[in-house]
Amino acid sequence: MSICPKNKSSRARRDKRRAANFKMSAPTLVKCSKCGALMMPHRVCKACGAYNKKEIIAVGE
What we know:
Blueprint: H1 11-19, E1 30-31, E2 38-39, E3 50-51, E4 54-55
Antiparallel strand pairs: 1-2, 3-4
């Protein structure tokens, strides 16, 4: 059984308490299996246009 609060906590007070755990995190980057450039996982590589060693998008240079 939890303790019953005496007074209602305002949204601002509640959210200030919850904000202590919220932090920005750097995006996860992996090497492209075809060209070796850094890219986000499970997405088409912007450098070579490949996904899972297959060319998906033709990148003009």
